[in-house]
Specification:
By secondary structure, this protein is an alpha/beta fold. It has 13 helices and 13 strands. It starts with a strand and ends in a 10-residue tail after the last helix.
Length: 361
């Protein structure tokens, strides 16, 4: 469990993963360190390694936890919703062998803890045995679909479940009473996003859209692949801070087109366009039910949407966020409020300049 560095602008940032690595083979994956292997025909870029479920159980049962996990223990006690599948799909093909996700779902269910599951799973990956431990009042599903064109999906997600099977899963989950959203991430082609929204937005509770970002290590591969399939969007990219992203003007126009045809609430995952969302979170976690009300409300997106949340803790943000330089050195003893306010002052003039928003410093 990690309280990720996205807490500065995200309300659904309490992350849980059951595996390290994923074998769906997505070329655009930001975790992927060897993208070249995928383009050459490899069906997976990493071999998933199981994460122990015992540490999760201990976190729920014991007050006597290590110093590095006390922050997570506080989140568990207040029933802050978990985002299951932050950096690895919990239903990747290793689950059939190890069943770590199943064991974690059993633990979460026994403690009545709310969780949003993010996955590219199809009808065959999430079994009835898994759903036995998924109470519809406590578990929500976010299914990722970037296109209904299977040929294109097979070119960028080399071994992920088929789109047909994902749509079947969505319909099954809805028939069982689950809150279900579709995450169009990455949005590569506008026409593909419009097709998804036109055909499926009246069948789900929420849709999230986030445009393609390409990490420097994947740029050569992704650029070559998109050019190979005749994609003309490369000209729409610029390098911003840590990744290649589409120009704001292009993203803005895309979102406005999508909103015209969307029949459910829409969230926008692009940081500079959060304000176009129909909810206080781009994932819609604030739209599910009362069991999810303890999401992290002190973040810049929620503030932008007019929500006046308060930090749930004045504890120092844990040192395991030190992968980001803002948490290093003298800063790793600071609380949530410090980092959110610092982010708010430093970046908001740039992120939200489109709609003229300026936060008070």
């Amino acid at each position: 469990m990690f309280f990720t560095s996205q807490f500065r602008f995200c309300g659904n940032c309490f992350r849980l993963d059951s595996y390290r690595g994923c074998n769906f083979g997505c070329v655009y994956c930001f975790v992927n360190a060897k993208a070249e292997g995928i383009l050459k025909g490899s069906t997976s870029d990493t071999v998933p390694k199981p994460i122990s479920f015992k540490s999760l159980e201990k976190l729920f049962q014991s007050e006597n936890v290590a110093k590095t996990t006390r922050f997570a223990r506080a989140l568990v006690k207040r029933k802050t919703p978990l985002h299951f599948g932050g950096i690895s799909d919990p239903f990747n093909y290793a689950e059939k062998k190890y069943r770590i996700t199943l064991k974690m779902l059993r633990i979460l269910n026994s403690h009545r803890h709310p969780v949003m599951i993010s996955t590219k799973a199809g009808i065959n990956q999430i079994t009835d045995r898994h759903l036995k431990y998924c109470d519809p009042d406590l578990v929500a599903f976010q299914i990722s679909i970037s296109s209904l064109n299977q040929k294109f999906i097979s070119s960028i997600e080399r071994s992920s479940p088929s789109i047909k099977d994902r749509v079947k899963l969505i319909r099954k989950l809805k028939s069982l009473g689950y809150w279900v959203s579709i995450r169009i991430q990455p949005l590569v082609y506008l026409k593909d996003a419009l097709e998804i929204v036109s055909e499926l937005s009246d069948e789900v509770d929420f849709i999230t859209v986030e445009h393609l970002k390409i990490m420097p290590g994947n740029w050569k591969v992704m650029k070559g692949l998109l050019e190979k399939v005749g994609c003309g969007i490369i000209k729409d990219f610029q390098y911003v801070r840590y990744a290649y992203s589409m120009y704001p003007e292009v993203k803005y126009q895309n979102i406005m087109r999508i909103k015209e045809v969307c029949k459910c609430k829409l969230g926008v995952g692009d940081n500079d366009l959060h304000y176009l969302s129909d909810s206080n979170n781009c994932c819609g976690i604030d739209c599910i039910n009362a069991n999810f009300d303890n999401w992290h409300k002190y973040n810049t997106m929620a503030m932008r949407m007019g929500l006046k949340g308060k930090p749930f803790s004045d504890r120092p943000v844990p040192y395991n966020l030190n992968t980001n330089t803002i948490f290093s050195g003298k800063y790793n003893t600071k609380p949530i409020k410090y980092f959110v306010d610092r982010f708010r002052k430093k970046y908001n003039r740039q992120l939200y300049k489109r709609d003229g928003l300026i936060f008070n410093s």
